[in-house]
Specification:
Length: about 550
């Protein structure tokens, strides 16, 4: 009975730690807001920028699993190439080591409750006093306090090794066996991380076991290596129902971490000695050993990234060979099969992933509009032969609208802040307006076909007039595309309003010219058809302005 109670106490302590981590992550993500989105937008620059972005994002949200799942979503949405995604994943592995340092430096050096309880008190006060209106800061402080309170409880719940010498005899069966011992403890680290769904929590458990004397320095280091492998499982599961590129990104994460464990297996003891040289203090000391392990974790991931960053193209080719395209990867029914990245992922990250999918929808809508212009200007057999492809993309736009909207509604049902609710409503407006643009493009494509089939007399001079008008609308669609991954400032919205004014002015001018031609005896049927096309194009400008307006409300 005593053992059962002790197990429940350990699990309860771990639960407080994990819940605190979730709350702190939630608060950090909400407080970071647009800064987090700007960091994510920086990902697309190059592989080195990707490493920095991956590190910064993971350091903010305290979860490499959540970052990697989000990257898989970005790859699926076409906002990141596989090569860029691999760089972000490498940076995420470095970013996840921050938690180990927080626990090692602050978790064992002083009375944890002396910092935890005041943080909880201040956090709860901020949440209860509505006039302060900073729930994100309150959640962050409350989460911070619960995290360290849970760590303190965990430290006390783990039995003292001096009172339980039989544990050492159990562990002794797996130590001192060279490579076999290394493999066993790497596997143990992998299993622990898969169970708790957080490499940060697994790291805290490992540091606690080391601090209380359950395991020695080399054993803990091997377990940490296993945790690096275990953290890849979440992204792997998230990619199972995704497209081929997203599956390749998840495999790249696994391959990168496996490769790191492979090379360090040959240099394990020298690497431990290098850490001993870098970190002061005898490794036999309780406090010093946790700092040594935090340094080992960081140094391993940094060195692994330095080794692999030059071989990203080779990694890309390997995972492309490993993950072949399946028939289900070819264009067909749309699926927004987004999965959460474990306990630390919140609605904030879900919204970022939804934005990536909305950007993909915007790109699809732009393609539909470009096809209309191409068909209207030059209704050749080659252009008309794409009819089935374009009709499939029109259906795809409708499916995207339905599934993304359903996902946003699901997010809105969770416990969210007023600001987050406003962001979700704004994104719902964006998706609805994009659906309206897609419907308008469908009508325009029908008009372009009618022009060819009914042989309406619209000459080259009218085509030349409509092209700059269509180009203005395409620029507006591209302008909104740039801001879907980020926010739109008031100054940028004024630029959007100016684009809409320009589109309206061009429509009035072209309509006026058409009426003049009617008065001079031009074909009434052809000119009315032309005016109808102008009206539909102008509607796209209206919808685009509504999208810009919605984007200004996202912060």
């Amino acid at each position: 009975m005593k053992v059962f109670y002790q197990v429940l106490t350990v699990l309860g302590s771990l639960g407080v730690f994990l819940y605190g981590m979730r709350l702190m992550s939630d608060g950090l993500q909400s407080a970071a807001g647009s800064r987090l989105k700007r960091v994510l937008a920086y990902m697309t620059t190059n592989r080195f920028a990707g490493v920095v972005s991956g590190f910064a994002t993971t350091a903010i949200i305290q979860s490499s699993s959540a970052t990697t799942v989000m990257v898989v979503g970005f790859v699926e949405a076409g906002l990141l190439s596989l090569k860029q995604a691999i760089g972000v994943i490498m940076g995420a592995n470095i970013g996840t080591t921050v938690t180990g340092w927080i626990v090692a430096l602050f978790g064992f050096k002083f009375s944890i409750t002396s910092a935890a309880l005041p943080a909880i008190a201040v956090g709860v006060a901020i949440l209860l006093i509505k006039r302060i209106d900073r729930d994100d800061i309150g959640e962050m402080l409350l989460g911070f306090g619960l995290l360290f309170l849970g760590l303190g409880l965990l430290k006390d719940a783990v039995p003292d090794i001096r009172e339980n010498p039989e544990i050492l005899s159990f562990l002794a069966r797996f130590t001192g066996r060279g490579v076999l011992s290394f493999v066993v403890f790497v596997a143990a680290g992998t299993i622990i991380t898969v169970i708790v769904q957080s490499s940060s929590a697994a790291m805290a458990i490992t540091l606690t076991m080391t601090f209380t004397g359950w395991i020695d320095y080399p054993t803990a280091a091997a377990i940490i290596l296993g945790e690096n492998i275990g953290t890849t499982v979440t992204a792997y599961l998230a990619s199972l129902n995704s497209g081929v590129t997203a599956r390749r990104a998840a495999r790249a994460h696994t391959l990168f971490n496996l490769f790191g464990v492979f090379w360090i297996a040959f240099l394990f003891q020298p690497f431990l000695s290098l850490v001993d040289i870098i970190v002061p203090g005898e490794v036999t000391g309780r406090i010093a050993i946790t700092a040594h392990l935090a340094m080992f974790h960081t140094l391993f991931n940094v060195v692994n990234t330095i080794i692999c960053i030059a071989f990203v193209p080779q990694f890309e080719r390997v995972v492309q060979a490993m993950v072949r395209e399946k028939p289900s990867d070819r264009p067909g029914a749309y699926r927004f099969s987004y999965k959460r990245g474990g306990i630390q992922e919140t609605v904030e990250l879900s919204i970022v992933t939804a934005q990536a999918e909305i950007a993909k929808m915007n790109a699809l809508v732009r393609e539909l509009f470009r096809y209309f212009v191409e068909l209207f200007v030059n209704p050749s057999k080659k252009v008309r032969s794409r009819r089935a492809e374009i009709e499939a993309k029109q259906r795809l736009a409708a499916e995207m609208h339905e599934q993304i909207a359903a996902f946003l509604v699901e997010c809105s049902r969770e416990s969210i802040s007023e600001k987050m609710a406003m962001d979700i409503n704004s994104l719902m407006r964006v998706v609805t307006e994009l659906e309206s643009i897609a419907d308008t493009c469908e009508k325009l494509v029908v008009r372009a076909r009618e022009r060819h089939e009914k042989k309406l007399g619209i000459g080259g001079d009218l085509i030349a007039d409509i092209l700059p008008y269509a180009e203005s609308v395409e620029r507006f669609l591209a302008f909104n595309q740039q801001h879907l991954k980020n926010t739109m400032s008031d100054e940028e919205f004024r630029e959007a309003a100016s684009m809409e004014d320009e589109i309206n002015a061009m429509q009035k001018s072209l309509k006026k010219a058409a009426r003049k031609r009617i008065r001079k005896g031009a074909s009434v049927k052809a000119e009315l058809f032309y005016i109808d096309v102008l009206k539909h194009i102008e509607h796209i400008g209206d919808f685009s302005l509504a999208i810009s307006q919605a984007l200004t409300r996202i912060r």
